Amino acid sequence: FLGAVALGILAYKGFTTITNSGSEIKTPKKNVGRAIIISLGICVVVYLLVAFAVSGNLTVEEIVAARDYSLAEASRPAYGDMGVRVTVIFAIVATVSGVIASVFAVSRMLAMLTDMKLVPHSHLGMPGSIQKHSLVYTIVLAMLLTVFFDLGRIASLGAIFYIIMDIAIHWGIFRKVRKEIGANAVILITAIVFDLIVLGAFIWVKIQSDVVVIYVSIVG
Length: 220
Fold this sequence. Notes:
Blueprint: H1 2-11, H2 28-57, H3 60-66, H4 70-74, H5 76-115, H6 130-148, H7 151-181, H8 185-209, H9 211-219
Helix pairs in contact: 1-7, 1-8, 5-6, 7-8, 7-9, 8-9
């Protein structure tokens, strides 16, 4: 269950992309938080509906067998092959749009951190701005992951790195800028504790089922 929670964190990560567009949003202090809450609410409803739809049409064994295309397979009993094709098309569109949004968000964040002298950077002979370079690096890394790992392992790596990053940010805020920004220490520590519980459980599950993910995470 806790392993699923860790993957759920990764699945919901898209809402953080909103913060990368803060400079382009009107009254960001109010609207960024509002946008995050609304997007999370929409995600909860959609994810629950999808889960009910899949579990209502497939058994647990069939879901496990279908794995990455279980949603498409769940549409087969009701709509046949046409339902599978339509679901796959929607999945492709959703995946492509999500990847594009994430890639550009990450490249913008890396460019900002580079300008702040927090991330080392090399042009490697490429023309253009730092953000364009970051875009190339991000895409190349994503392609390498896609070539060498399946979707399950990529999601596992993403979940581990994401939770570690979350812990690091909360700890950094607690130690360095908590008083400056008026952050609540109880909320920060609680978030770190929950992150550690989920991360520990997830790592334990992966040690038993797919230890390669742990080795790659350590190297990463």
